[in-house]
Amino acid sequence: MSAQEVRSTQQKAKPGVGPFVAPPANRPRAPETKSFPAGIPDDAERRRQLRLMCETVRRVVAELQGMTDDRKQERTDMRRAACHVRQIGMYVCHVSLQLSLTDIGFGFGRDRTTVAHACKMVEDRRDDTAYDEFVSLVERLILCVFSPIQAAVPGGNHE
């Protein structure tokens, strides 16, 4: 088939038929929902504060793990430890700070499905008593750090 025949066949094709169907222009769109914590300002400032909150949680978890782990780590162990720190941080943000998975994913630079996986992994590991005590300690510390902030914000999600 020559190029001219291909063009003429494409011109005869009806618009809106085939694999590339455009959505109707007059279809109403679903309203946008914002799931950021109450009291955090819109747009750039809100995103900056989410990243700051998640980074703070990650650093607290990393410091606590560094205090409890006294053995020298090899390179692969360091990567694994960083992954566990991030997973615990995501879990604590979801459970203690009550952030949505989407917000946590944004704050950690990951997808919401990755956050869901991290929460599931941490929940599964909490059967181990020592691990459960460590995660409980992190939860209590994070609540101590962020409760005054959330209490000071009008409409913040605190008890």
Description:
- This protein has 159 residues and is mainly alpha-helical.
Order of helices and strands: HHHHHH
Gross morphology is globular
Radius of gyration from CA coordinates? 24 Å
Proportion of residues in helical segments: 55-70%
User: Total helix count?
Assistant: 6
Instruction: Give a short account of the largest sheet.
Output: none
Low-confidence stretches: 16-21, 30-34, 151-156
End-to-end span in angstroms? 71 Å
- The count of strands amounts to 0
CATH class of the domain at 41-148: Mainly Alpha
Structural class: mainly alpha
CATH superfamily of the domain at 41-148: DnaA protein, C-terminal DNA-binding domain
Tell me, rounded to a whole number, the average pLDDT: 76
| Level-2 CATH architecture of the domain at 41-148 | Orthogonal Bundle
Per DSSP, what share of the residues sits in E-state strands of 2 or more residues? Answer: under 5%
CATH topology of the domain at 41-148: Chromosomal Replication Initiator Protein Dnaa, Chain: A
Protein topology:
Blueprint: H1 3-12, H2 43-68, H3 75-95, H4 101-108, H5 112-125, H6 129-152
Question: What keyword list fits this structure?
Answer:
159 residues, mainly alpha, Chromosomal Replication Initiator Protein Dnaa, Chain: A, 6 helices, 0% strand
